[in-house]
Amino acid sequence: MPRSTSRPTRLLRTAAALTVVTSLSLPLTGCGYNDFQRLDEQTKSSWSEVLNQYQRRADLIPNIVATVKGEANFEQETLTKVVEARARATSIQATPELVNNPEAFNKFQQAQGELSSALSRLLVVSENYPNLKANQGFQDLRVQLEGTENRITVARNRYIQSVQDYNVLVRSFPSNLTAMAFSYPLKPNFTVQNEAQISQPPAVSFDKK
Q1: Count of other CB atoms within 10 angstroms of residue 186
Q2: Structural domain span for residue 59
């Protein structure tokens, strides 16, 4: 009959097994695996907030357009551009996977930038119409829109920072080895050019013809 394994032998085998498990887990923690999980979730969360604020803005626009339409002789071209820009922006399906597709992400941010510019022009042009300036409903909508634009800026800045943190981890050694092993790609971010476009005030002429 085979002899039973002695207690010291069992302890040695257990210790050896623990050593193997530890040696296997060290590359995952030491090379940034857990950091990838944390930062990936952080970018998803910050991206969701960006989308929430963009949706809030899109929901305000129909009421703004309806109010402006009531103003006689309001610039139809300006109003049409807002409606068309909103349609383009909301036609893009903003899924969580969008942040891993640079081409789709660029189209999304370009559409949102165009909507920002169209809305900015509408608000500037509205200053030419005393009735709109005196319309409490329009002014309330304007305050809500301006507040939403501020929240969009905050949300975008948080997303930019979270993506920067994630991408630094992807590029750095030795975490870049983990990124290659587990297929963690660089994430697209809002571009400097896009930020400049959004922050640039529209050129509007107040000359009366």
Answers
A1: 13
A2: 32-199
The answer to whether residue 145 sits within a structural domain is: yes
Amino acid at site 160: I
Taking CB atoms within 8 Å and a gap of at least 24, the contacts of 81-87 are 81/118, 81/121, 82/115, 82/118, 82/119, 82/122, 84/118, 85/111, 85/114, 85/115, 85/117, 85/118, 85/119, 86/58, 86/61, 86/115, 86/118
Are 68 and 132 in contact by the 8 Å Cβ rule? The answer is yes
Residue 53 neighbours by CB under 8 Å, 6+ apart: 148, 151, 152, 155
pLDDT in tens, 30-53: 578 999 999 999 999 999 999 999
- Show the CA angle centred on residue 66, arms to residues 60 and 68, nearest 5°: 100
Tokens of 160: 């930019």
What tokens appear for 131 in the block?
Answer: 């009735």
**Per-residue pLDDT reduced to its tens digit, 138-168:** 999 999 999 999 999 999 999 999 999 999 9
CATH number assigned to the domain comprising residue 122: 1.20.1440.20
As for how many domains the chain has, the answer is: 1
Residue 107 near residue 91, CB atoms below 8 Å = no
